[in-house]
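HUMAN: You are asked to prepare a plain-text protein record giving the amino acid sequence and the backbone structure tokens, both parts labelled.

ASSISTANT:
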Amino acid sequence: MNDIATDIRKTARTGAPRKGARPTPASHCVGIVVAVEDDRFTISSGDVVVGGRRAASCLLEPAVGDSVACLLVAPDEVWVLAVLMREEGTENRLLCRGATRLDVEGGALTLNAPGLEMETARLAVRAEQMDVSTSEAVVVGREFRFVSSTLKLVGSLFSSVFDRVNHFSKHHQRTTEGLDRVQANYLEQDGRQLLRLSGESTVITGQTLIKAQANQVHIG
């Protein structure tokens, strides 16, 4: 074992193995996956049936019935290097164990598929600029928070349904060109310093009672 470690260190320094050193022998074969149990695979190649594991570079998880390329490192142990052929209808699953990161340098990453689903316990997106374009969107959640210094909504129709709405702002201005109607069983407006109702024609109607109460009441 010490001799092997010495050879490895010497090869790393000189770029060539010492005289008489031999690399670990291995042979290639092609087989069919006949069984899968956790991260272990049973491969049938000719008259030989061996067990093996998936190589780290083989991201496509082998399935029963797949034709695979293998590296035979022991009489009964193989590494699955690649999936060569798969039966139609079998789901393709890319699997990475442990923390995984995808880096793209000098270009853009594009995902193109008829459908895209993401399932995770937590999703974080960080970007200097984000553009979302869709013909229809549905967002369903128990709690939704939106924090922004500037918020602008532009559309032809805005409709919302809530059991309760609380709104606070330092300044609030609303402009409506057409009809602006508020309908409620109980309507209250409170101006701490001034409450003003102004219109070319102003109509106040009370079916039972109209009451004006103040220290001074001016009409006209």
In short: The longest helix spans residues 2-14.
